[in-house]
Amino acid sequence: MKGTISDEIEVNVPANVAWELYGTLHLSRFIVQELPTLLNKVDVLEGDGSTGTVLKITFPEGTPGIPYFKERFNIVDNEKRYKQSQVIEGGYVDLGYTFYGIRFEVNEKDENSCITKFTINYEVEDVNLANHAFTMFEPLQTVIRSAKTYLTNKTHI
Asked: Domain boundaries in the chain?
């Protein structure tokens, strides 16, 4: 079974400003610092934030389910402003998913605003496991809403 889940939000900053957060390792640091209930730690295992970078994402102690996962950036396109990653170890792979990927995009609306979007794509053989894909939906909604507040406040300082 294949599935897709996505959400988007308008942000009143230029697309290049939003991409400075979403297109770099700064997004992981932002989540750990600003949303410590979502992530405890992010270790860069290889790379510099560009295509091929591998991260180890560790959840806070006591988080039910999966303690960590490793994620590889399959595509980081600074020109088109999108980043596509895939869980390669732990997390949903350990639960039985054959593919679990997340894509972040920043699309220009006009010179002073943009649309930030995330999309979760997954493949799983056991249909009952497909319900677990939704467990990352709410945290990613929290990330894009918090990022919107951060980016909006940052540009008005």
From this structure: 2-155
CATH class of 2-155: alpha beta
Give the helix ranges, DSSP H, for the chain. 15-22, 26-34, 91-95, 137-155
Q: Of these residues, 2, 80, 83, 154, which one is catalytic?
A: 83
pLDDT in tens, 53-99: 999 999 998 887 789 999 999 999 999 999 999 999 998 888 888 99
Is 154 an annotated catalytic residue? no
Whose tokens are 């600074």? That residue is: 78
Q: Looking at the whole model, is its pTM more than 0.85?
A: yes
What's the CA gap between 98 and 124, in Å, rounded?
5
